[in-house]
Each structure stands twice: as C-alpha cells, then as structure tokens.
Amino acid sequence: MPQVESRLMARPLLLWAAVAALSAQSVYGSQLWHDVNRYDAHGNECKLREVRGIVCKPLCVSDLARCPESLQPSCPDGQSFCADGACHTKCTDVIQALNPCHCSRTGDQLPSAARSLVPCMAIPNVTIEHFRPWDAGRDIRSACGAKAGIVDQSKTVAIWGSGWPGGDTTGVWAECPAAPIPNFTFRESYWVATFAVNGALALILSLWGVNKRWAERNVRKTATATTYTINGTQTRRSGNPETKGFVKIQDDIGGEVIKPNGEFIHGAASTLDMGTATANSLSRDIKLCGYRNHILGTVCVWSVALVTALWICYMGVWTADYYGALPGSRFGSYYSLGLGSLTLQSSTFLVVWMLSLVFLLTLYILKPHLRNYFRVRTLPAHGQYVCVVRPIREIKLLSDKASWVQRRVNLVTERLVALLSRDKDYTTCLIEKTSEGRIYFNYQCTRYVYDDQIQQFAPFEFDLGSSHRGLLAQAVGLSTKDAHYRQELVGPNFIDVKIPGIFAAFARELVSFFYIYQCIFLWAYYFNAYYQIGLVDTGIILISATIKVILRMLSERRLKRMAEHEESILVSRDGQWYQVSSKDLVPGDVIEVVSGAYMSCDCILISGNAVMDESSLTGEPLSVRKFPLRLDNGHYNAMGSGKMSTLFAGTSVSQVQPVQKSADGLESPRVLALVKSTGTMSEKGQLVRQILFPSRISFIFNEQMRIVVFILILYAIFVMGMAVYFYKGDVAVIIFYGVFALSQLVSPLLPAAMVIGQSVAASRLRRKQIFCIDPQRIMIAGKVQIFCFDKTGTLTKEGLEFHGGQIVDPASTTFASFTEDPAATNALFRQAMASCHTVTDLNGQLIGNPVDIEQFRASKAAIDPAPKYIDAVLTAGGSEKGKLHIVRRFEFVHARASMSVVVLDEATGKIHVFIKGSFERVKSVCRAGSVPRNYDSVCVNLAYAGCYVLAFAHKTLDVTDPSSIKEFSQAELEADCDLLGLLVFRNNLKPDTADAIAELKRGSTRTVMITGDNALTGVFIARECGMVPQRNRVLLGECRSPMEEVKWVDVDTMLPVDDIEPYLDNVGFDGFTTTELAVSGTAFERLCATGAIDSLLLKIRIFARMKPMNKVDCVEAHMKYGIIAMCGDGGNDCGALRAAHVGIALSDAEASVVSPFSSADRSINSCVELLRESRASLASSFANFAALICYGQVMCGMVKMAGFYFAISLTQNMWLLIDGVIATSLMLAISMSGSAKRLDKYRPTSRILGPQMLASVGGVVMINWVFSTMAYVWLFQQEWFRCNEHATAEVDVKKWWLLGDNYEASILSFVSTFQFINNGFVFNYGYLYRARWYKNYAMLLVWGFLMAFISYMLLADPNQVGCAFRLNCGTPSVLESLGYKKPTWTIEAYNNPQGHNVIPTGSRYKLWGYCLGNMAATNFWQLFVVNGPVRNFLRKRKPLDRLRTKL
C-alpha cells in the first residue's frame, strides 16, 4: 500500500499553484443573443427612462488649478483639501493614501503618469433624462461633464488608463479598472500553520514508510507465509490434549477411543475434523494476513485522523470568514483571510475544497487497507490482528440479456472495482488467547483456532461419528477436562450478534460513498451564501440516514432476539449431572431434555421421545415428534433418516417422554440428547450467518444505475460547459456553478426514496400477517415470474380427511369393496391403523403427522399414558385385552417412503410387523401372491380421483420375546409381508386456493407444483385448483431408478407415449402447448443427469415424489430462467424456501429464519398479497426515482440554463420551498400509494433504462423544456417586460442572492415550481400495480396545498406570502406608486431599476393557464402514451423479449 503515503503527501504541494491559477477578476454574465433593454415588443427602440441620483466618478488632474471652475477646491477655515477629495483639518498619510485617482494601486502597480494625479471637488449627483443602459458609461460621463461645466470632454478629458493629462487633455475620469487581486505571500500565519501541519504529516508518513519497509523485510521474502488460503481440506489429527488431539483406536462402529485423560469411551469416535461441509463453507477462499501494532504507526493513524479533521475545520474557517464570523479581531471583517478580496477568498476556498475532496475520496478508496497499512505485517500466528480477505460474491438478477453498452460499462466497473480492491471483503479481527494459551480469532461469529500441526487458523467442528452404536456409546458424557478442551476449540455455544450503538450505527452509515459525496458538496453550499439550502439538504440527508439506520437497527435487534439465547441446562460431566449455562455446551456433551426448554444447539436424541415446536426455525406449523436413535448398525444423517432424531437449535420442547424399557434403544429415566453442533455450526447458526452476512444482490436496477451515473456526469460536464460559455471570466465561479449542478443532478433524497418504499410495503405486509426479515427481497418479489408450491398443507388443507379404505381378501387375493370404516371389518387392519404411526398425546391434543393423526382418529383407539415399551395404544372400546405395545418403530424416511412398527398384541401374545407407506413402496416389500392383480389400477384410479393413498402390509413374527427382535434389521423385519389393504384420504383444496392460482396466472406468473406426494394425486389437485386446465392432456414421466430411461404415459388413458414432441407441438389459442408434463422424483433426476431437463423444465407442471434435495434442485433449475418464488409449509421445504429468490413459509411464527417471508395467515392468498405489495413497492420506488431524476433535470436543465443566460437565480426562500418542502413531501406522498386490487398481466419494470422509464422521464423532461422555453418566448412578447429587462452585464454573478428581483427570475420561479409539483403528481399514476391516483389521499392533500399556495403567490396582488419569496412584489414606495396598498411588513429594497417585479393581472392569469397547460401536457403524455393506448399498441406490435412460458 505505498500509494497511501504518496497520495497523502501530494496535497500540500498543489496548494500554492492552485490558488494562483484560480485567482481572477469578478465575472459578469453576458446575454449573447439579444441586446438588453434596447428594443420593445414591437421592435422599436426602448423609450429611454429618467434616472436620478447617479453618482459621478472623480475628475483627476495633475494640478488642482486645472480643475473646472465649479470644481475648484473650497474648504472652510481651518481645513485643507486633501488627496481623498475632501476637506480635513489635517491631511494625514492615511488620508492621503485614499486618493481615488490612484485606483487602489501602490508601488509598481501605480503608473508613473498617475502618481501626480489628485481629485477635484466632488461633482454633485446628476439626473439623466434619457438613460441608455447599454451605453451607461458614456451617458454618465456626459451628464457629469455637463454638470462640471466641461464643454468638449472628448478632447479634454480621458478615462483612467486610456490617457493621461498633457497637451489638450486636462484631466481623466477615475473609472478605475478592476483592482489587481492581492496575492498571498504564504508567510501569513494561517499558511505557515497549514504548511507546517501538512509538512509534519508528510514527514511522519515518510518515516513510517521507511520503518515499515525495514520491519517487514523478512516477512516480504516469504509471501506464502504471510498470506495464505484456508483451503478446508480434510485434516484428521491424533494425539492427546498435550499434543492437541485425540487418538482414534478403532472405526466408529462399536470401537473404543482413548479419551485425553486415558480413560476409555466405549463406542465413541471423537476426531477433530475440518473437512465437514460446514467447516469447509466457513473457510473457503479465505486469505489471512497478520499484523501487529507499532507506536509510530499508531501516531500516523491519529495524525491522519487529526489532519482530516483539521482540513474539514479549515473549510469551516474559510466559510466563517466569508460571512465575517471569525472570532477575535477578525470578527465582522469579510474576506479577511483573502486579504479583503472576494475573488481571492473564493479561489482559495475552492482549492481547499478540492484538496479536501481528493483527500476524503482517497481515504474512502483506501479504507479497507488504511488501518493495517499503519501496522507491521507479520505471520498470522505472530500478530496481534488477522486481516481476513474474502471475495465478495454477488448474485446478479435479470442481467443475462445486457446490452452492448451495459456489458462494456459492467466490464469497466468490474475492473475499477478490482483495481480499488472493492471486489473483496476485508475484516480485521483481534487475535485472542484462551486460558490454555491457544490463539484464535472470531470472524463472522465463528471461532478460528490456530492449529500447530498444519500451521494455520481454521474453524473446528467435532465429528462425533455417524453410526448409531458409536453415537449411543457416548451417552456417558464428557469429562470436565475434555469439555474445557473442546470449548477452547469451538468457542461458546452462543451467537453474539453485535449491534452498534446509535453513534456507531450512524458512523457506519455515513462513511458510504453517497454521503461523502453529498457532504463535501454541501460545503460549497455553505460557503457561497447558499447555507440555507445547505442546511435543508443536510437535514434531508440526515433524515434519510436516520430512516436507514433505524430500519437496520430494528432488523438487527429482531435478529439478535432470534439468535441469542442462554438458559440453564443439566449436563452430564464426569459421570455427574451439573447445572451449567447453555453457553458452555460443547459437541459430545449429554444433556437432559425437559419440557419447555429451548434448544440452543443441534442435538441427537439418544433416549426418550420428545415433541418439538419447530415453527420458528422451519416454519412447520404443527409440533413434530422426535424419536431416539436405535441401537443398531444404522448410520445417522441429520437431513435424511436421522432428522426424526435431531433436535435443532432454535426449536422448543413441547413434551418429553422417557423410555425406561426399549427393545432397540437406550433406557433411561431421563430424556437424553447428545450435543452435535454448537454456535454457527448448528443449523440455526448457519441460517443466522446467512442473514447477518448475506451475499450481495445486484438487481438490474443496480446494473443500469452505472450507466445513469455516467450519463449524469456527461450532463454535468455539459452544464459546466454552458457556464464557461456564458460566464467568460472567473474560473472559480464556473467551477462553483458546475459543482452546484453536479450536486443537484443526484438528489440526496434518492436513497431515502428507495428505502421508504420498501419500508411502507413491509409495514403493509405485516398488517396482513406477512412478515419479512429481508426487506431488499421485496423489490425482487415484484418481479417473480414462476411461483412453485408444495401441495400438502399449502395448496390443500393442513390435515387430510380420512376417506376410507379397501381391504384385501386373503382367501381370494382380491380387493373387497370400498368402505368408509375399514377398521370395523378387519382386526389386523384395525391394529395397523391404531399402531402404525408416530402420534402422541400432548395435554389432550394429538401431536404428529397430520396423516397419522387422521388415521389414528379413524381407528378410534386411544394413547396409553403409561407405556411399557416405546408406546402403547388401546384399541377401539378401551379394553385392556386390546392393548397394543409398540416394541420397535422405524420412522418414516423420505428415501424409503415408508415406516414400520413391531407390535406386541397383549391379548394374544403375538408379535406383529405392520408396514405403512406409499402404495408403490409397500408393493415392493410384499409377497407377490398377496397382491391383487388389479392393485396398480385400483391405486391409480384412487390417486387420479385426488385421493392420498397409503398401503398397509403385515406379517407375524415367530418369536414371543420382545427383547429378541433387536437382533433383526429393518429389512429383515419388513421382508415377505402380506398386503393388508389400502388406506385412503381425501386431499381437499383450501377454499381460496383456486382463486389465488387464478389471480397469479392473471398476473403472468407461472405456477408449478413440487410435491412429495403421488403424481396422479398431484395432477388431480393441479386440475382442481386450475393450475392445469381441465381439458389439457397430462403426460406423466416415470422411471424406477435414475439409471433407467424415462417412460411417458397419458394419465387419462394410462396408455404409453413413445414420443412426447408431437403432443408438445400441439398449441392452443394462447400460442402455447395444450399438453402438460408431470414427472416423478426419479424421472427428474434422470432428466437432470442426461441434460434433457433444460428443454423440458418450463413445460413440466408437476414434480411428484420429490425428496427435499430434489425440491432444492428443482428450484435452482428454474432460477436459471427468471425470478423464482417458493411457497411451502416449512416441513421438508426448508431447503427450497431458502434456495429460491423469494421464499414464503406458511408459518404461525412471526420471525422465522427459514425464508425471507413468512405468513401466519396460512393461505396461499398470502402469495398474491406478497406480489401485489411487492409490485406496488417496486413501482413506487421507480416512480420516486423518476420524479427525482426529473427534479434534477428541471433544476440543472431549465433553471441552470436560464440562470446562466440571464444571470438570474431563484430567491433563497424559493430554494428552501423547492428542496425542503416540495421534493420531500411529494416523495413521501408517492410512497403512500396503495397496491392495486388485482395483479396485472404485466410486471412493473425494473429497468431504469428500459423503454417505459425512458419514455416516461424523457417525455416529461422534453415537455418541460419546451414549455420553459416557450415561457420566455412569451415573456419577450410582453410590453411590460421589454425595456424592463434584467441588466445582466451590471451584476456580479458571484452574488447570486441578488439575482432574483426581476421578471426573468419570476417567470423561472413560477414555471419551474409548477413543474416540480407536477413531477410528483405525474408519476403517481400507475393503477396497474398501485391504487388509482385519486385514492392516494396523501398525494392529493400535498399536491392540493402546494398548488393552492403557488397559485395564490402568482395570481394575488402583492401580499406578505409572495413578498416573502420576492415574487409579485417590490419596494414599498414603488408598490404605492403602482396603486397597491402600502405594505405593513418589512420588504428589503429591490435590486432593479423599476423597483419591483409585479406581473400585470392579465398576464398573471395567462401565465397560470400556461403552467396548467404544461401540467396537462405531461399528464396527457403519461396517461395516454406511457401508461395508455400508445403503450398498449406498441406492446402488441413490438413486445419486449421476455420469458415466454405457459402460465
């Protein structure tokens, strides 16, 4: 980072040259295309006006005797005539130095011919009857000469500098040319201090640069040692705590591992593993650099900070001196630092301002490196700090079809970002030590510990093993020493969400580029008598920042409440139970699970049952029953079969049930859980990390904003060019006006406008019970093109309705007729319904899978509250003889699509095996002889009718001792079963599903079903809800395994289809195929493997039998084609909900981390509401953007161009009204617009350079330009204006506050103000996505008030309101002479010859009508061209290239 030093040292060297270059004369405007006050409206020369009280310039002669007789000196007795042209008692040196004939020049600057000049007596003020303003000098000299009695002054009197006394010339008029600007000697005290401070900084930086290079000489030789990547490769270590590891003796199935203290843990397998997916994700692509503090470097940091503050204060000092507000002896003296010269003062301030701008931008660019540059680089393990460097991953949305310009701008931007190191995230972390001396640092809430063996920092995660036996063998818990060692490696079980204080939060917000840009430009406002506008804009910026800070802090606090939790936990340590804080838990700990507890870490249930409320984590609305691991040779997979044994962090315990007698598990009077993952390694921790440290999302808006900024910069250059063209003179003035133009092009309200739109939408969604934890996703939701839905519990009702069943007659192996009460017809079927489930009782409420609950209720059985084994049920009637003991249970696993139980029938003593699952799965485990021939057709017909079909199978074991069944595997127990029959449920739609799907389709949103249910059931539901039109053909693709080819059948005829292409080529009236596709999970996997999914994906409507990972893959496949939303109940949809661009979980939990949105309404109508509000928010944000861009164009277009040409300006109060009231209130009013009642078939644009935005903004800007130009054409046709024009050449444009007392400024004020007001109203239209314009009551109120206010100022006779803005007003005496009442309020005298700018009454109404016509034209353009028939016509003739797919 040597550039840091060079850039900081370069500043003092530029100062002297820049001040000298910018010092110039005062500058006057020039109206290049017409003569001011020369001709009237009819082309005749203006009638010359009489001007009284004109002050004559002194007449200078070389000898007082040569003065005209009337000007001969005459003083009272005792006084003498002095060189200042007045009589005094004594002509002192001070008085003599005030000789007006020397024109403020001394020494070499005074011509030799002028040294002897002295003034005659002063000429009395004169009156010129026919004053010609275009030749004012000649008229004044003639009148003054005549007053002095000079007969022929063309021969006898010259002008100072053009001639001198001698010969016929007797005197010269003291019309002094502009005095030369004084120059600094740079020995002034403030310059000495400036150079001393900056010189000291340069010296310190130089010393630091030399010292740093010397101190890092050894480290630089080994670059790989100072900066290296944590690659996350697997590293297993061995040893004991003394060697920082564990010894693995045997494999992780039933082996023995030596603990650090030499004891044995039977079946444990504790290895330290960095190779897990979680650890790898935390360490991927990370580079580390070590640093340590140095006293000289610290001095440099404080020096840079001090000098930065001093430069800002220095600008404040020059600004205060501009107003004569410096304390002390300089108080009341204007431009004292500029040696009394406004030009020198302005030029110097401009140089200081520009250097400060460069300095602050340099600090901003170097911000990621600055602090560490002033530290000494070391090896990471030897430093006090570690700088973590990680590439910034950006998710780009809707950027695939970028234009050529967009691609080039993106390329330049990417290279610039890389050059400025903005493509990486730099985080400096403090290196700390544990109590044992182990060094570590915390990065993104995760502990990275230094590993002596591999010589690098890494996050550690303990691998407890995967075998059931190995995990259960760790039930004894850890020793205190072991737990302490593990905590040193993984850190506390606590996610510490750091929320900055209010000051730090504002500092974090205000150091962004936008605020630095605004702040530095506001200094120019404060300096040039523009401080009122500066204060207003400062207030707007602070309001914007405050809104963003408050919203961010509220979000962070909500997340903090979700992430942080601490409570007392019973944990087994050293064979004893201790009460410890949940922060002290480590992987491998064994804890007791109690009712009402909150899980602060991921645990594995190893003994007892638990009912968990997972709504806050997964969005699952119903409590979930968890079962302990079985003591077998199975393998644990947290996201697979082991999910039913996993207690996830962030969930709460509703009920526990100890198991003291079990055939295949641990027996304990307590419910025990083995801690698996803590902190950010837990499932909840990873979700919290994703929210705290999200990937950057780049919307197409952000992409095109770069081009907009480029265009605005070119426009600012054009505006500065116009300033150069019209203001031929002072470079400082030109730059000042250019700075004002550039600052006004991008409104300070812009960030607030985008944030407020999202905030309003989030508030409205919250009122509709839709909660959002990621507000930036709201705008993305406004562009959703495809909406994916789970079926059960999402499209359909929560609980299935029991419909009946069909029992197999074992004698004939045929199905009996369908019955609504199958349990009453067959004892085994009744026992299967009563026992083959996971239902439990929680305070009188049945808890479990909704299907299981319906099944259990239909069996009319009851839960035994005191089971002898795992569970017990009382069959119908409640007789003790009907008690069934569940001895062993294999929970439902998606991969197997079935569950099974081993049941002891207490009445008969027999042990039964019951299997329940999908009819396909159950058929595969049954004896072929027990399956009816028409089995498939019966099942298919039921599924086709929309039924949810399960099958039961059964067999009786040849054992009587329940303890003996633990020797059997699940496959052995389920083999060779006999089919019992079918269990049938009705899968009824939610009442509003069909309407919601229809509304989504109406909004051009394709709807897709992704379900784990049978495909035929999915087809039925899709047709019933309107997702698939009733008459459309549906082809189903299936295969037995991903290795086989997909076979297609027509679901209506069940006939095979060899080639689907002819069916897909058959298109309907809408131009899309009339054939829909459905695929099973295995078929989807096959299509993905062969690549065929790319051509078929957008033609597949139903994805059935999808496992959780299949759902994720399906969503990600759709994301390649557009913005995708996913809606589910949060059960097995969590991965898909998180993967989608927009996920909405139908969950009762207000704050669910499963997805950006969650709905407590549990209706898919929430999806419609989300799109409605999101589209309205997107449209409102773009309306605000368009309004503010038009604000900048009006401000920097007509206002600036007219200001440059006529050398005029709006009055100070007018600026305050526009910036402080009109722009702010209209922005807020636009955001208040409600959402449309229906979804339109078109989505709102997200392209600020798209045809709609270009037509809208461009059209309004052009219309405003035309009307503004024509307003001045009209003005120059008015008799009351011609010959009363603003005398541009006589006004110093630096003094802008004197440029508003004229007709030109009045016309500009009224026309532009009506345009400002109209801009907000015009962009309030948008009924396709927002409520009708007349329903935005906030807009109507604001617009009505502003219109009435400005109309009153324009139409009324001179009044206090108009005079406050110096419009339609004048000097009190002049107003009286015009026939108006004498004002009772104070009015400062007007700065123009006629003394007023009152527009005649008739012309006022004409101007008012003209402004209304301007507003009508822009409204017509917006309504009939941009939003109306013209747009509709063009959409049909030349549609945009969008995603075309059947809705």
Strands, count: 54
> Compute the gyration radius: what is it?
43 Å
Low-pLDDT runs of 5+ residues are 1-29, 231-277
Describe the main β-sheet briefly.
Answer: 11 strands, mixed
Q: Tell me the structural class.
A: alpha+beta
Separation of the first and last Cα atoms: 55 Å
Strand residue percentage: 15-25%
Shape by Cα distribution:
elongated
Tell me the helix content: 40-55%
The neighbouring-strand order within the major sheet is 33-54-53-52-34-46-51-50-47-48-49
Number of helices: 46
Please tell me the overall pLDDT: 80
Kindly describe this structure:
With 1447 residues, the protein is of the alpha+beta class. Helices cover 40% and strands 17% of the residues. The chain has an 11-stranded mixed sheet with strand order 33-54-53-52-34-46-51-50-47-48-49, with helices on both faces. The protein has a 9-stranded antiparallel sheet with strand order 36-35-45-44-43-42-41-40-39. A hairpin with a 2-residue loop joins β37 and β38. α29 (935-944) runs parallel beside α32 (1015-1025) and α40 (1251-1275) packs antiparallel against α45. The longest helix is centred in the last third of the chain and has 42 residues, at 1165-1206. The chain is elongated and about 150 Å long.
